[in-house]
């Protein structure tokens, strides 16, 4: 059985957005402007955002998507990570690129891209996931950088961005093997030599998902759950996507998180406040070869 055609289509759209994106990011651009442009481009090309476009500036590493009122602008000193995904009928592709305007960090980006390329080149069917991490950490060390050890790649499944298996960025023994019918994302995160090499959670939460569709017996909350479920199921979403129809979405989400109907994703930052670079591709084995979908 071949790879589901919707995965291939999601990958094609993601690849086109990725190419367009590289020349689009400029100093002086607002974070929210970039985020909404990426999400709009995905829709323009026939896809749906698999999750809110994540923008990580410098030490902000993952799970941050700007709110509508965010006024942050990129400067010439910044390292900017753009993490986005596309789904077609729930079949999704996940990717990330890093852009910098600061030549001081060119080698950090080069090493991170190299770690991704080499891990893809050396991946084999029925290989243990930890071996991919070995390659990534080896490249990082060779270039004089640190891996973010508590972030990892992951398998993907229909309507599930992070499925059952992790693809670590360091060697971990005795992990499950990667099977020929699995679609998975490899995503090295590298930081500077003086970085902590791990991320920590912040209180700020800008990305959410519905855990399960169940009634709360509160009309407004139930209407919100139905709206999210009909368009997203359990895929992550941004509060700004529902502000026009529901107004005070933050208050609704606070209550749903308290009820454990919704999940919040805390923003993750580098433990020592150092800049982080990230590159990511979604891949799958097809006819014995590893195919890069994105």
Defining key terms:
2 domains; 4-stranded antiparallel β-sheet; Creatine Amidinohydrolase; 7 helices; 31% helix; Arc Repressor Mutant, subunit A; globular; 294 residues; alpha+beta; 5-stranded antiparallel β-sheet
CATH topology of the largest domain: Creatine Amidinohydrolase
Return the CATH class of the largest domain: Alpha Beta
Total count of strands: 15
Unreliable residue stretches: none
Compute the average pLDDT.
Answer: 95
Shape: globular
Task: Summarize the main sheet.
Answer: 5 strands, antiparallel
Helix content: 25-40%
- Terminal residue distance: 21 Å
- Helix tally equals 7
User: How are the strands ordered across the major sheet?
Assistant: 8-7-9-14-15
Number of domains: 2
Derived from helix and strand composition plus strand pairing, the structural class reads: alpha+beta
What do we call the CATH homologous superfamily of the largest domain? Creatinase/methionine aminopeptidase superfamily
> DSSP strand (E) fraction?
25-35%
Order of helices and strands: HHEEEEEHHEEEEEEHHHEEEE
Identify the CATH architecture of the largest domain. Answer: Alpha-Beta Complex
Global Rg: 19 Å
Brief account:
By secondary structure, this protein is α+β, with helices and mostly antiparallel strands.
Note down, in words, how this protein is organized.
This protein is of the alpha+beta class and 294 residues long. The protein has two domains: 219 residues, Alpha-Beta Complex (Creatine Amidinohydrolase), CATH 3.90.230; 64 residues, Winged helix-like DNA-binding domain superfamily/Winged helix DNA-binding domain (Arc Repressor Mutant, subunit A), CATH 1.10.10.10. Helices cover 31% and strands 27% of the residues. The strands form four sheets. The protein has a five-stranded antiparallel sheet with strand order 8-7-9-14-15. Helix 3 runs antiparallel to helix 4. The radius of gyration is 19 Å and the shape is globular. The relative contact order is 0.18. The mean pLDDT is 95.
